[in-house]
Design a protein that fits this description.
The structure is a homodimer of 229-residue chains. Chain A has 229 residues and is α+β, with helices and mostly antiparallel strands. Helices cover 43% and strands 22% of the residues of chain A. Chain A is built from eight helices and ten strands. Chain A has helices at residues 21-30, 85-90, 111-120, 122-148, 151-166, 180-187, 191-203, 219-226, and strands spanning 32-36, 41-43, 51-57, 59-65, 71-78, 82-83, 97-100, 104-110, 207-210, 213-216. In chain A, the strands form three sheets. Chain A has a four-stranded antiparallel sheet. A four-stranded antiparallel sheet of chain A has the order 2-7-4-5. In chain A, helix 6 crosses helix 7. The radius of gyration of chain A is 19 Å and the shape is elongated. The model of chain A has no long low-confidence stretch (mean pLDDT 94). Chain A binds a DNA duplex (30 and 30 nucleotides) through residues 150-152, 179-181, 189-193, 195-196, 198-199, 211-212.
Chain lengths: 229, 229
DNA sequence: GTTAAAACATGATAATTATCAGGTTTTGTT
DNA sequence: AACAAAACCTGATAATTATCATGTTTTAAC
């Protein structure tokens, strides 16, 4: 279901809200709406991007492949977030791949429109800057977590993060379902270790599972674990 | 030795080069020059910053303390870099502490001057954005390294990084001398493990040491190690 | 210059995590 | 429905890394 950016709610969550009517019109006229199926690749590490992707619905993982064939998920991007901004601004090839972890709807916005607006509308530039500053802070936090927390703590944190950011259904299962491998790649561990910890958490009553679905069963206990008790 | 920003070479390395004469004059008139001794703290995690620090000389570590009392160094900032930008832009308290790892000279620039310029000069905003985009990419790389490389590989990388970015003296020792503890905190490991690896690298002829000083002895071998051979 | 504190160093051991090997279950395709 | 592929799971083991204990050297303060 396509529509005009001017009326798009998603825009309120990202820097595009700092655009004026004219600028928004240009974006709307040049944007390309696209559906992306779960598992499909939006772009791959090393590619040059001709624009950015504004996420209207669904979730994408941004990850980087290493020499030994492992994938580290650096960030999950969802409704309202803009993917590829960093790359377009720095005028480089992407350092990350973007793959849909659920069915997605995105709008592709050509880079010219973005950079023109950046160069002429300081409000927009500052707004983008704020978002990037936020991303940078989050990245710093991830670095610290990676080096100072155990795999168990990071797993616990991942469940709490998903609950907080994507919510849960009526039955108490997380709305965003990730494969065990994806969990492992978020947390930075081996898939087997990840599965083992899921089993352990389940046995201890911290989480509940049903097939691929996972739900937080004892938020407090998970929180305690994260904090080192 | 104080001077005018207009004539400051350091400015060429950071976003301040996108300022026009008037703006630069304002910065120069409001800036406060300050010497900082090795080991001295510039600001601490959680503080509110009234401005940014432009590094004229020396190196600062930006780190975050964790619950268990360990410090993770997220970034080393040196000549030309601006510290505290992220915080000032996001209008939050800092998520990191800044401590000098060598004697430093910095210029404090009040945040009003920065934000006024951001709001009126798109060139400056875009330039800041570019620098932030670069920092974000580096942070992503660190995340991936943390999760996918061994401590040994990260140590090897640290030596190569220091050689590349700070150079070495006539005797072949790194210009920037870090304590073993700082190395451990950059790499994200225990100080004892760090020391052990230094001993091992020395024994194998990858590096050489003399007191606290460390020099790269076999760049190729270190590089091979980083790449997993 | 003495002395206390900090930094450096190494061994022994324990804890964490990865890897390999073998299963079962689920999913998607013909 | 049958089949192959992918995802999930568990055990055994090995590798990595942290921790504790203890001693030495260097640095800084008086």
């Amino acid at each position: 279901m396509e529509s005009r950016c001017e009326n798009c709610i998603v825009r309120q969550f990202n820097a595009l809200r700092a655009m004026n009517k004219e600028e928004l019109k240009k974006v709307s006229d040049s944007k390309v709406y696209r559906k992306i199926k779960k598992g499909e690749t939006i772009f791959e590490e090393g590619e040059k991007l001709d624009g950015v992707f504004c996420v209207r619905d669904g979730v994408s993982k941004l990850s980087k492949l290493s020499a030994n064939g492992k994938d580290q998920i650096v960030k999950l991007a969802s409704k309202g977030e803009v993917i590829g901004q960093r790359t377009v601004i720095a005028e480089e090839s992407t350092n990350l791949s973007a793959v849909a972890v659920s069915d997605m709807e995105v709008c592709f916005i050509p880079k010219e429109v973005i950079s023109n607006t950046l160069n002429t509308n300081p409000n927009f530039a500052v707004e983008v800057l704020r978002h990037m500053a936020h991303d940078l802070k989050e990245a710093d936090d991830v670095i610290v977590n990676m080096s100072q927390k155990t795999v168990k703590q990071r797993m616990a944190e991942a469940f709490l993060y998903l609950k907080k950011n994507y919510g849960e259904d009526e039955a108490g299962f997380l709305n965003l379902t990730l494969s065990r491998e994806d969990y492992a790649n978020v947390v930075g561990t081996a898939t087997e270790s990840c599965i083992r910890i899921i089993s352990e958490f389940k046995k201890k009553g911290f989480i509940k599972t049903s097939g691929k679905q996972i739900g937080v069963a004892d938020e407090r206990k998970l929180q305690d674990l994260v904090e080192g008790f």
